[in-house]
Amino acid sequence: MAASELFHLPARTLRLGMTLPYDIYDEAGKLMFARGQVLRDSPLVRALVDGGAWVMSADTLEYQRALAHRLDTLVMQDAMLSDIAKADTSFRMEAPLASKVELGPREAWSDLLLHTHSLLRETEPLDFPARVAQLRDAALKRLHAHPDATLMLLVFESSQEFDDYSARHALLTLLLCDLVARQLHLDPALSEALQGAALTMNYGAGTAHDRLASQAGPATPAQRQALAAHGDRAAQRLAQAGVTDPVWLTAVRLHHEAGPGPLAARSDGEKLARLLRRIDLFGARLAPRRSRTAMSGAAAARAVFLDELGQPDEAGAALIKAVGLYPPGTIVRLANGEVGIVFKRGFSANEPLVAALIGKSGSPLSNPVPRDTRLASQAIAASLAPADLKLRVNLDALLKL
Question: Three-class SS string for 46-102?
Fold first, then answer.
């Protein structure tokens, strides 16, 4: 098997207990686990989860979608059969993998993370705007079906991992942007431009962002210089890849330069750039780097509620109204001494539903126990940084809530 046929999975794409939607190989191309198998706990499987697994490029759903779309395009263009045959050399007419193996919530997001990582790394992407739209629609379908569970999963996992930061951050930013667009009642065209900008704002800079998130020290002068004006470069690359919406491109170009102030007086692109800047900041503060820990949910919320001048920020306020002062996936301590994770937004921004994980005595509970923070005894007493939770969280049990 040629090494070029193999695609290296991002770390944490695989999960203990998941049913494999594709064959898993080692770097040399030797089959290790066949699709359909369940990954049982073992030293080998843990090594694969930590980033040692490879899959066939043609086995990924993203690859199949892209190539199928390319074939459809060639047929519509009345291309010569020889050209269609060349494009079809590695394509197999079979049902998408997702229909063969029904993925659970965590596996589905791992699959989306893989596709995001792959798409945003391509130097000469094929049918890029259409594939961004497919990725966007798949992610938002999950969000709209189970908004609080989806937020909890993405926010919590973003707070635990610094591997593959750029793809994870792009997906979280997309979800937050969609919620804010609904909060502000943006028209559909502006919402789509904001969603596209959320996924692609760091296009071309993903490798640099991932390296910075994984290194022990602060950014070097060379790294800061490389990342300077990456919004301009991302917008240029997106235009070259076929993105034609000027509002989308402006939002990407200015997402680090849109300063404080009201939204109404701005152009559409500048308005979306300001929204994207505040949402980008919020997501980044919820995520750790190897060189620093993630903020607590309340601290991240305060950071975006007040603007650069210390004044209430319109864009930040819309985000807090959408996700709450304690977003799903963040850690809190209750008035009764219990520690838990927010799993559902409440009727007000500061009264979400919490699943208690650690009891008053400091011992882990056998199962997460729902708590209503509207009650005085169960009210939130403090917002904790993710690193303060010294417990392996059973996300599958939480998702059932």
Answer: HHHHHHHCEEEHHHCHHHHHHHHHHHHHHHHCCCCHHHHHHHCCCCCCCCCHHHHCC
Task: Dig out the tokens for 302 from the structure.
Answer: 């305060």
* The one-letter amino acid at 271: K
Cβ contact 184:318 at 8 Å:
yes
For 141, what's the count of Cα atoms within 13 Å in the CB-facing half-sphere?
10
pLDDT per position as a tens digit, 64-100: 555 455 555 555 555 555 554 444 433 333 333 333 4
List residues bridging with 382 in a β-sheet.
Answer: 333
Alpha-carbon gap, residue 73 to 88, rounded angstroms: 12
Sheet holding 24-25, edge to edge: 6-8, 54-56, 24-25, 31-33
Choose the most confident range, by mean pLDDT, from 51-55, 226-230, 285-289.
285-289
Please name which of 85, 150, 205 lies closest in space to residue 345, comparing C-alpha atoms.
150
Range with top average pLDDT, 9-13, 47-51, 94-98, 119-123 = 119-123
Taking each helix axis as running N to C, give the angle between helix 105-121 and helix 165-183, from 0 to 180 degrees, rounded to the nearest 10.
110
**Cβ neighbours around 213 below 10 Å, total:** 22
Strand partners, 19: 38
Residue 101's alpha-carbon distances to 54, 104, 109, 138, 209, in angstroms, are 19, 9, 14, 16, 33
Q: Are 333 and 384 in contact (CB under 8 A)?
A: yes
State the greatest distance between any 2 C-alpha atoms of the chain, in Å, as a whole number.
73
* pLDDT the model gives residue 249: 97
Provide the pLDDT for residue 120.
87
What amino acid occupies position 187? D
Alpha helices in 310-391 (DSSP H): 314-323
Q: What angle do CA 295, 299, 304 make, to 5 degrees?
A: 110
What single-letter amino acid sits at 99?
S
The DSSP letter of residue 377 is: G
Give the residues across from 292 on adjacent strands.
289
Structure tokens at 373: 């923070």
296 dihedral zone (left: phi>0; alpha: psi -120 to 50; beta): beta
In the prediction, which pLDDT does 23 show? 82
**372 forms bridges with which residues in the sheet?**
353
